[in-house]
Specification:
By secondary structure, the protein is an alpha+beta fold. Among the domains are: 181 residues, no CATH class; 109 residues, Immunoglobulin-like (Sandwich), CATH 2.60.40.
């Protein structure tokens, strides 16, 4: 008997196997969206984030970073303490309760969630649009609102009657119906239904907890009404003053606010046929900016999610801040980097997450990398000089605390490192028996820590990859600042650590039994979860993309793919996929030049997202296969359901980074132009490009490719900083090859089948390619 997962997997593989001529656009179907999906609305850099469930209900937590304090447990906001419940039904002999039948985003990119409601064979249908906006209150303070626009359509030849029921709570206080409003017992407004005209307010139900309104919808017509939910304390006594706010104007304002914010960033320009990807990119920018939040001190945090993962990790900061920077919002990313400084301990430790305090050393390199990225993108030496004490302290902490794993077996008990505690464990780190005098497999690595991502607690290599990178950042920063003494110190520490790192890896590879020698995940468990293994390639450049260990790891991963994505990524083990992390795998393939795999991973990733362009962490695909953790909830998850938060921040962050890298990415002083653009994205008469995109050379780059005719493409590069070297690849149709290349009207030689290498590009440059 064929399983649904296998049938869907076969369908995707068949689609991905289509020849280029048959795939005329990058169509996102969301065919593998997780069953327990939920969406989010909110404001950029705002504390209020509202979950919109699949059936159109609203949930939120008042416990923002401003209010939570530091002495709270992990997942503090998952205890959602605010809610608005909506029920709608049609009256009459064939009375039917309407049910949610689908969701989408307005114009496929605005973070406004539309939920369609329909009755079974009934005449009425409702389109619920949920969005957030900030507007002046009556007393001129800024007030955020969640707003629902309810458009009811009647397809019958006679009028129909709709009954709306609202109930809910705020700060866990149940709300009571007061006319057209819901308010809590302490006098604050939960929701107001506007306008009142044409509505019959019925006696409240459920002991006064349910507001009931009845509305008549004309024959073959429609009506629109609005529900307003102030984000902050809004006195119920002032509820009637909300009538002074025009909800339709607020909707227009919310659209304009997002358009204005998008216009500030880098401008992605794809052909109309690729509108789905362009829209997904803009929606991702919106989500990543909504998943930032200020704490009680006004510091800006990048968060991994709106509820369970409403928390900060340094490794997440790296990719999230990097995506904010690459999307063109350097000022916002700078604030998130500044926030990390207040988290560093006096001895240089840069751990995380903040509230739980579990020892996860990969956060150290993520924070250091964020500092260095901002310098590369701005070349602001004043920033680097002010940040340098933090990266130097972190590097020294890494070097010093490696001593904990180098203690002799007979070392005095009191001299041994502290046993860092975590509240639970995934599984035990294997401890193979050592020969007499043989050192532990993790000798010289960072001390025991919380593995995360399905890795056992112990000595995961990704933590050490990031630890190495923290020291490399300090070395590069010292060099840039002319601090030769520190530069030599950190260079020596880096080389010593790297030698130990690779010796440990070589020993770990000897334990591998399931494939050719591949990049291991852990010293004594090399086949553990691989979600973070490839950071050794991108972004740390510790291993070349074509290194044999990397090649073999990728081959091993391809063996076990499900629904077009790698498995064994994290908690789900063999039976689950992690869409957002699959894009980091695609980044490695991009740097290897294996573009078919890049494109298939990107498409499969986006087809595992929900229809509102949000990512779940991992998704169970085949529950008959083993999970990675001996404990935890992942083993209980049903097929099609996921773990973690939604939206998950790594999803939009990695999507922004990958799409940008397909258009161009940097490798030191070399810029790869159009390295990953498939030929199917552009046809004669079309163009694509990106404008005002920050580069790690310290300036911005605008590029535009025009497909002039069947045998000619023209590329215009307009950088604000000199490009020392540019490798330009033209996305030629299959079977075509370059016959001539002209730069600013002058013929050049030495081009390959589809690429040409140019040096010292300074200012606007026109490149014509014939093929």
């Amino acid at each position: 008997m064929f399983s649904r997962a296998n049938l869907l997997r076969s369908a995707l593989l068949a689609a991905l196997a289509l020849p280029a001529a048959a795939q005329n656009n990058f169509h996102i179907t969301h065919q593998y969206a997780n069953k327990d999906a939920r969406s989010m609305i909110g404001l950029p850099m705002g504390s209020h984030k509202t979950i919109v469930t699949k059936d159109g209900q609203l949930q939120w937590s008042q416990w923002s970073l401003k209010q939570k304090g530091r002495a709270v447990g992990f997942g503090f906001s998952e205890q959602l303490d605010g809610a608005l419940g909506l029920r709608m039904s049609e009256l009459g002999a064939s009375a039917k309760q309407l049910a949610a039948t689908g969701q989408r985003l307005i114009d496929d990119r605005f973070p406004f969630v539309i939920t369609d409601w329909k009755g079974s064979a009934a005449a009425l249908s409702v389109e619920e649009t949920a969005f957030s906006v900030e507007q002046d209150k009556i007393d001129q303070d800024q007030q955020g609102y969640d707003i629902l626009r309810m458009t009811v359509t009647n397809s019958a030849a006679e009028p129909r009657t709709l009954e709306l029921r609202l109930d809910g709570r705020q700060r866990n206080l149940p709300a009571r119906a007061e006319g057209a409003h819901l308010a809590t017992g302490d006098g604050f407004l939960l929701a107001s239904v506007e306008p009142d005209a044409g509505a019959e307010i019925l006696p409240a139900e459920a002991h006064g907890r349910t507001l009931v309104e009845r509305r008549t919808v004309p024959a073959n017509g429609s009506i629109t009404f609005w529900i307003e939910l102030p984000n902050d304390n809004f006195p119920a006594a002032k509820a009637d003053t909300l009538a002074a706010l025009d909800p339709a104007t607020l909707f227009a304002t919310a659209r304009k606010d997002w358009e204005t914010l998008w216009a500030r960033g880098a401008q992605l320009d794809l052909p109309a046929r690729e509108k789905e990807l362009a829209d997904f990119y803009q929606a991702s920018v919106a989500y990543i900016l909504m998943l930032t939040e200020r704490d009680e001190n006004g510091e800006l945090w990048t968060l991994d999610g709106p509820a369970f993962y409403r928390e900060f990790w340094g490794r997440g900061e790296y990719f999230q801040a990097r995506s904010i920077e690459f999307a063109g919002y350097l000022d916002i990313a700078r604030e998130t980097a500044l926030h990390t400084f207040s988290l560093q301990k006096s001895d240089g430790e840069w751990d995380g997450p903040v509230t739980s305090g579990w020892p996860a050393w990969d956060n150290i390199g993520g924070n250091a990398g964020t500092v260095w990225d901002y310098y590369l993108l701005t070349r602001d030496k004043q920033w680097l000089a002010s940040s340098y004490p933090h990266v130097a302290a972190a590097a020294r902490w890494v070097d010093l605390h490696r001593q904990e794993s180098m203690l002799e077996d007979d070392a005095p008990e009191a001299a041994k490192g502290v046993a860092r505690q975590i509240p639970w464990k995934c599984s035990d780190e294997p401890t193979p028996k050592l020969k007499p005098g043989e050192k532990p497999y993790w000798y010289g690595l960072l001390p025991w820590s919380y593995g995360d991502s399905g890795l056992p607690e112990g000595h995961p290599y990704p933590h050490n990859t990031w630890g190495l990178y923290a020291i490399k950042v300090a070395e590069m920063a010292a060099h840039t600042l002319g601090n030769t003494t520190d530069e030599k110190e950190f260079a020596a520490k880096y080389e010593d650590y790297k030698k130990v790192y690779f010796v440990s890896m070589a020993r770990s590879i000897e334990l591998e039994t399931d494939y050719k020698p591949y990049l291991p995940a852990m010293p004594t468990n090399p086949g553990a979860g691989v979600s973070q293994s490839l950071i050794a390639v991108y972004p740390t450049n510790l291993l070349a993309p074509d290194h044999q260990w990397v090649t073999n790891l990728l081959a091993r991963m391809r063996k076990d793919e499900l629904e077009g994505l790698p498995t064994h990524m994290a908690w789900m083990g063999a039976g689950g996929v992690w869409p957002s992390e699959s894009m980091n795998v695609a980044e490695t393939y991009l740097r290897r030049g294996e573009l078919d795999k890049v494109h298939s991973l990107l498409l499969a990733t986006l087809n595992h997202t929900y229809v509102t362009d949000v990512f779940k962490e991992e998704i169970k695909v085949d529950k008959t296969l083993p999970v990675a953790c001996a404990s935890g909830v992942s083993k209980e998850v049903e097929n099609g359901n996921g773990t973690g938060d939604q939206p998950e921040a790594w999803g939009p962050a990695n999507l922004i980074l990958l799409v940008r890298d397909l258009l161009f990415y940097e490798d030191g002083d070399t810029v790869h132009i159009l390295p990953g653009v498939p030929a199917t994205w552009i046809a004669p008469g079309e163009h694509l490009g990106i404008a005002q995109a920050p580069t790690t050379l310290g300036g911005k780059l605008t590029l535009r490719l025009d497909y002039v005719n069947a045998s000619t493409m023209r590329l215009r590069l307009d950088p604000t900083v000199t490009l020392p070297e540019a490798v330009v690849r033209f996305p030629l149709p299959a079977g075509k090859k370059l016959t001539s290349v002209n730069v600013n009207g002058h013929a050049v030689k030495g081009f390959s089948t589809d690429s040409v290498t140019l040096r010292s590009i300074n200012g606007a440059t026109d490149i014509e390619a014939r093929f």
